[in-house]
Write a structure and sequence with these properties.
The complex is a heterodimer of chains A (131) and B (167). With 131 residues, chain A is mainly α. Chain A has one domain (21-126). Chain A is built from 6 helices and 2 strands. Chain B is an all-alpha fold and 167 residues long. Chain B has one domain (2-163). Helix content of chain B is 74%, strand content 0%. Chain B is built from 6 helices and no strands. Chain B has helices at residues 10-40, 52-57, 65-89, 91-96, 100-127, 136-163. The two termini of chain B are 19 Å apart. The chains are: A mainly alpha (131), B mainly alpha (167).
């Protein structure tokens, strides 16, 4: 005789990875997602790249640095992303110490802020649209 | 990496990277589009014969989440590497020929891809908690936003490559 055993709730829950089941991680990702577009836009508008990359010479300067004569352009995009990732991860890690914090955060900010960031970033690219 | 250039030209090397980048983008696009359609227009329980559109949107969205994250990061990293070459070999000639709006859209695409990167941990978390009704709305919105970013990035990159590639 074969007995079919229904998986218990505990067994079903085991299917969710420990990270996905963690309330602290939930708070971390929610705060990270909200902070990331804000920090990225601020970093772009206020010139806060963590570093500047010069592709012509493979040189890296800490923070913002102007392009040097006869060395080609300077690239800030990598530095903006580094600022965003480190800043958001730091805020997320601090928030993760308070796992129930995420229950008080309006989740719509997670998709609304990146949407609002795009027109601001497009405006910052004005020289491309007006030439 | 310089040993590679004993066998292939510099342009061939970057063109191969660009093609791999595009193929990864296609995979990301396909997975995200399936998932986005499945949350925007969920199929009711399949009974009997169903059409292509119904089968397209009847996928189990949660099963795509990790793959989408891995593909997004892989596409992003490869694109970030290619961007160093693009900045000198592609953008400067396009500036000289006045393709300002094309270049502007490409820069906007880079911003959008970075914003998408910041969404990935939350996106993954919401899909890995599919039974939590508190995340239903935000899971749908984040998935649709990532799909829109992916389509925008893909089409913009394609148009820019038409304007000037590495070859």
């Amino acid at each position: 005789m074969t007995t079919v055993v229904e998986p218990s709730a505990a067994m079903r829950d085991k299917k969710t990875s420990s990270l996905a089941a963690s309330a602290s991680f939930g708070t971390f990702v929610i705060v990270f997602a909200i902070a990331a577009p804000v920090i990225y836009v601020l970093s772009e508008l206020a010139n806060w790249p963590l570093f500047t990359y010069h592709p012509g010479t493979n040189r890296i300067d800490f923070g913002w640095a102007a392009a040097r004569a006869n060395e080609g352009p300077a690239m800030y995009w990598y530095g903006w992303i580094a600022t965003m990732l480190i800043g958001s991860a730091t805020l997320g890690a601090v928030a993760a110490r308070f796992p129930r914090l995420s229950e008080r955060i309006p989740l719509f900010l997670i998709w609304l802020l990146p949407l609002l960031a795009l027109p601001i970033l497009a405006y910052a690219l004005m020289p491309f649209w007006t030439r | 990496m310089s040993f590679v250039f004993d066998y292939i030209s510099v342009n061939t090397f970057w063109t191969i990277l660009l093609i791999v980048h595009a193929l990864l983008a296609v995979a990301t696009l396909g997975a995200l589009t399936h998932q986005a359609v499945s949350v925007a227009m969920p199929a009711r329980q399949l009974a009997g014969a169903s059409g292509f559109v119904t089968r397209f949107r009847a996928v189990h969205g949660a099963g795509y989440a990790t793959a989408v994250c891995v593909l997004w990061v892989a596409t992003f990293l490869l694109g970030a590497w290619i961007y160093t070459k693009y900045r000198i070999a592609v953008r400067i000639p396009l500036e000289r020929t006045g393709y300002w709006k094309t270049l502007g859209f490409f820069e906007l695409k880079e911003h959008a891809a970075a914003l998408g990167l910041g969404l990935l941990p939350a996106y993954w978390y919401f899909w890995k908690n599919p039974k939590n009704p508190a995340y239903d709305g935000v899971r749908k919105a984040v998935t649709l936003l990532l799909a829109a970013i992916c389509w925008f990035a893909f089409l913009t990159g394609h148009v820019l490559n038409n304007a000037r590639g590495f070859g």
